[in-house]
Design brief:
alpha/beta; TIM Barrel; Immunoglobulin-like; 2 domains; binds alpha-D-glucopyranose
Length: 586
C-alpha cells in the first residue's frame, strides 16, 4: 500500500468502552465519541482507530465478534456509526475500525451452525477435529489428553492459558481450536469460502466510508499444518503458540490476496498488529505494495518479557528503551513507514513503564510532568506515524490493585494463575499484574475531577483510576505547562509547514547513542532546503552538559521553563529530564 496521504497525519486510538459514556450505563459508546470529536480535532488528531464496537458478548472486550455487520447495542447503533463517519468526514478526520478475523465469537452464527453439523459446510469454517480416546499413536511425542481422555491434535497453549482445544458444544468427541479465549474459535483461512466471507465484509465497511482498518493478531491466521506437538516449555506439557508460528509459512499468500481484493481497490489505510515477523519479510509487509500501509513497532513493548511468567518480566531502562527505538528505526525506515506507540489497550501505561520507578520515587508532580513530556517528545518525533492512545495525552498512569477480584482482563487472570501455580506469593503476583496488566490502559478516560472522572453518570464498568482528581483533562487544558498542552505543541510542530519536511519525511540519525541516559537524534531533510532538527533528552534526574553536533539556531520546543541555548555554542546544559527540539545551524 504505497499511498502516503497519511504520512503527515497524527493517529489516535479510542478504546470505546472507556472513552466517554453518553447514556449513563457505565460503558462508553459511539455517541460519546461523536460528542468528543471536536476535542480530538482541536488536539490535532486526524486518524482515529476504534477498538471493536461490533456485536459481541465482550468475552475479550469486543475482540470476540458475533456479528461483523452490526454494532453492539452497548456501543450504539449502525445509525450512530454512520453519523460518526459523517461527522468525522466533516472535520477532515478518518475513522479506522479493528479488523478481527483470526477468530470470531462462539456466539457467531457460523459457529452455531458448525456446532449443529460439524461435518457440514460451516464445520469447514473452523478447525474442528473428531478425537479418539485411544492412546496417542506410537512415536507421537508430547501428546496431551483432555481431562476426559481424548488425545488432542496438538499441545499448543492458547495465549490466554490452557490448551487450544475445547470440546465443541453439544458433542462428546468433537473439538475446536482457539488460539485466544475459548469464546474465540479460530476461523479456517485455508477455506476459500471463509476468505470470501471476510473480503465481502471488509468491502462492505469500506464502501460505507471507513478509511481503513487496524488488523488484529493477523500473523495467527496461518497455522503450521498438519497439527503436531512441539517440545513443551512449561510444566503444563504445552508449548507457546510462537513455537508453532515460527514454523508456519505462507501467511503472505493470504495477506496479499486480502490486500488485492479489499484494501488496494479502496486505497484504504491499514495498520498491522504484527508480532514475530521475519526480518526478510518486512518489505512484503510495509514496503512498496506491501500487505499493509504500516505496522506497529512493538520492540519496546515486548522488551524484557519472560516466558516464565509476568513476575519474571524485567523493567525497562532508558538505555534499553533507546536501543529498542533506534534499532526499530534502523530496521523499518529502510523499508517503509512505521507506526510509533508507547502504549495501547494491551499494554501498561507508557508514563508508568518508561519512566524508571526509582526516579519516580524522587519526583514531585512538576518533575513527573517534565519526565512525561520528555517521553512524549522522544517517541513522537521519531520517524513514522505517531499514535496516541486515549489518556496518554494527559499522562494517565497504571492502576493500583488491592486484590485479584478487581481484575477484569482475561490475560491478567491467566497470568495470575500461572504465577500462583509456580508458587509466586499473592502480593508479588498482584504487583506483577499492576506492572503488566491490560486493565491499566482500559480504565475510563479522566475528563475531569467530577465523580467517575466525568466519564459516566452511572457506575463505570471498570474502576476509575483513583488519581483522577490530580490527573484529568479539565485541570490540564488551561495550564500551558501541562502534559496535554505539550502533546498539542508536539502535534502542531510536526504539522508546521516550516518543519514538516524534516520531521515527517526527513532521515533519522542517532546522536550520542552510547551516552548513558541520553535519548537524542537528528531529523534531517535535504529537499526542498536542507534542514536539521535535533531532539535531545537528558533522560535522568541529574542535570548535565551535552555536546551538540552544531550550534542551535532556534528552540522549537522545550519541556522546561529553564532557558537553554547560547548562540554559537556547540553544547547545551540540561536539567533533569529536560528535553529540547532544536533547529541546528548546519
Ligand atoms: C489483539 C488485541 C487484543 C486481543 C487479541 C485477540 O492482540 O489487541 O486485545 O485480546 O488480539 O483478538
Amino acid at each position: 500500500m504505497n499511498s502516503t496521504w497519511w504520512h503527515d497525519k497524527v493517529a489516535y486510538q479510542i478504546y470505546p468502552k472507556s472513552f466517554y459514556d453518553s447514556n449513563g450505563d457505565g460503558i462508553g459508546d459511539i455517541p460519546g465519541i461523536i460528542a468528543r470529536l471536536d476535542y480530538l480535532k482541536d488536539l490535532g488528531v486526524d486518524i482515529v482507530w476504534l477498538s471493536p464496537v461490533y456485536r459481541s458478548p465482550l468475552a475479550d472486550q469486543g475482540y470476540d465478534i458475533s456479528d461483523y455487520y452490526n454494532i453492539d447495542p452497548r456501543f450504539g447503533t449502525m445509525e450512530d456509526m454512520d453519523r460518526l463517519l459523517a461527522e468525522a468526514k466533516k472535520r477532515d478526520m478518518y475513522i479506522v475500525m479493528d479488523l478481527v478475523v483470526n477468530h470470531c465469537s462462539d456466539e457467531h452464527a457460523w459457529f452455531k451452525k458448525a456446532c449443529e453439523d460439524p461435518e457440514g459446510q460451516y464445520g469447514q469454517y473452523f478447525y474442528l477435529r473428531r478425537l479418539k480416546k485411544a492412546a496417542a499413536p506410537e512415536g507421537t511425542a508430547y501428546a496431551v489428553t483432555s481431562p476426559d481422555g481424548y488425545v488432542l491434535p496438538c499441545n499448543w497453549r492458547s495465549y490466554f492459558g490452557g490448551p487450544v482445544w475445547e470440546k465443541l458444544p453439544g458433542h462428546e468427541d468433537w473439538y475446536y481450536l482457539h488460539v485466544f479465549h475459548k469464546k474465540q474459535p479460530d476461523l479456517n483461512w485455508e477455506n476459500p469460502r471463509v476468505r470470501e466471507e471476510i473480503y465481502t465484509m471488509i468491502n462492505w465497511w469500506l464502501d460505507r466510508g471507513l478509511a481503513g482498518f487496524r488488523i488484529d493478531a493477523i500473523i495467527n491466521i496461518k497455522k503450521a499444518l498438519p497439527f503436531r506437538n512441539y517440545a513443551p516449555d512449561r510444566a503444563d506439557g504445552l508449548c507457546s503458540i510462537h513455537t508453532m508460528l515460527r514454523e508456519a509459512s505462507g501467511v503472505g499468500e493470504f495477506l496479499g490476496e486480502m490486500r488485492d481484493r479489499t484494501f488496494a481497490p479502496h486505497n484504504a489505510f491499514t495498520v498491522g498488529e504484527v508480532f514475530g515477523e521475519k526480518e526478510e519479510e518486512l518489505p512484503d509487509f510495509i514496503g512498496k505494495n506491501g500487505y499493509f500501509s504500516t505496522m506497529f513497532d512493538f520492540s519496546e513493548a515486548i522488551w524484557g518479557s519472560s516466558p516464565a511468567g509476568w513476575h519474571a518480566n524485567q523493567g525497562i531502562t532508558p538505555d534499553a528503551y533507546r536501543s529498542c527505538l533506534f534499532s526499530a528505526q534502523k530496521k523499518f525506515n529502510a523499508v517503509g513507514f512505521i507506526s510509533n506507540i508507547i502504549e495501547n489497550h494491551d499494554e501498561p501505561r507508557g508514563a508508568t513503564r518508561y519512566i524508571p520507578a526509582a526516579d519516580r520515587k524522587q519526583m514531585d508532580e512538576r518533575m513527573l510532568t517534565t519526565a512525561k513530556k520528555a517521553l512524549a517528545t522522544v517517541y513522537f518525533l521519531a520517524k513514522g506515524l505517531p499514535w496516541i492512545y486515549q489518556g496518554q495525552e494527559i499522562g494517565m498512569e497504571n492502576l493500583p490493585l488491592h486484590s485479584i477480584d478487581e481484575v477484569d482482563d482475561v490475560s491478567s487472570i491467566d497470568a495470575w494463575n500461572v504465577m500462583r501455580e509456580l508458587g509466586v506469593s499473592e502480593a508479588d503476583a498482584l504487583r506483577a499484574i499492576e506492572r503488566n496488566g491490560r486493565d491499566n490502559a482500559r480504565t475510563p478516560f479522566q475528563w475531569s475531577a467530577a465523580e467517575n472522572a466525568g466519564f459516566t453518570t452511572g457506575s463505570p464498568w471498570l474502576r476509575v483510576n483513583p488519581d483522577y482528581s490530580q490527573i484529568n483533562l479539565d485541570r490540564q487544558q488551561p495550564d500551558p505547562d501541562s502534559v496535554y498542552n505539550h502533546y498539542k505543541k508536539l502535534i502542531a510542530l510536526r504539522k508546521d509547514p516550516q518543519y514538516r519536511d524534516p520531521l515527517v519525511r526527513g532521515s533519522f540519525e542517532p546522536w550520542l547513542e552510547d551516552e548513558h541516559n541520553v535519548i537524542a537524534y537528528l531529523r534531517r531533510s535535504e529537499v526542498p532546503t536542507s534542514q536539521t532538527i535535533l531532539v535531545i533528552s537528558n533522560y535522568q534526574l541529574q542535570p548535565r552538559v551535552l555536546p551538540l553536533p552544531a550550534p542551535a539556531r532556534r528552540v522549537l520546543l522545550n519541556n522546561c521553563t529553564k532557558p537553554v541555548i547560547q548562540p554559537g555554542k556547540r553544547q547545551v546544559s540540561l536539567g533533569g529530564y529536560q528535553t529540547l527540539v532544536l533547529e541546528l545551524d548546519m
